[in-house]
Amino acid sequence: MELKIENKEIVNVLQELLQKNYDAEAGYKQVMTKAKSQGLKEWLQLKAKQRSEYATQLDNVIRNFNATPAEDGTVLGSVHRGWIDVKTTLSSDTDESILEECIRGEKASVSEYETQLEKVSDYLPIKDLLNNQMTSIKTALNTVKRMEDII
C-alpha cells in the first residue's frame, strides 16, 4: 500500500526522530561505561532506557503508517560518539566532560524536536507524543545541568 504524501511527510519526521533517539541511546550507553561516579552511571543508564522507549514508541507509530522504521542511528551520531571517545580519553575530568556532552546532546535533541513538531502540528496524537518526549528531554537537560554544577 502506497503512503499518501502527507503521511510520507509524517513518517519522515518520525524516522528522523527515531534515528536521533537511537543515537542518543547509543551515546548514553557509551558514556555510561566511561563515567566514574556510580550515580552518574545509573542516571545515564536510565536515560539510555528512556531513549530506547522513545524509539519503540516512534517505531510503532511508523509501523501504523505501514512504513518500515529505520534500524539504526545517523552517520553524524556515530561521528559524535567517536568524538566523545577522543574527548573523554584526553580529558582529566571525565565525568565533567561526559556531562558537558550530555548537555550538548540534549540541547540538540530539544532543537530537533522543536523543528520536527512544527511539521506535524496538524496531527494531534503525534504532536502529543512528540511533545511528551520533548518535555522529558528538557527535564533531563535541566537535571544534567544541575549535576554539572555539583560535580
TrEMBL record:
Residues 10-118 form the DUF2383 domain. It holds the Pfam family DUF2383. Gene3D superfamilies: 1.20.1260.10. Transmembrane segments: none annotated. It comes from the Bacteria. InterPro entries: CHP02284 (IPR011971), DUF2383 (IPR019052), Ferritin-like (IPR012347), Ferritin-like_SF (IPR009078). NCBIfam families: PA2169 family four-helix-bundle protein (TIGR02284). This is DUF2383 domain-containing protein. The lineage of its organism: Bacteria, Pseudomonadati, Bacteroidota, Flavobacteriia, Flavobacteriales.
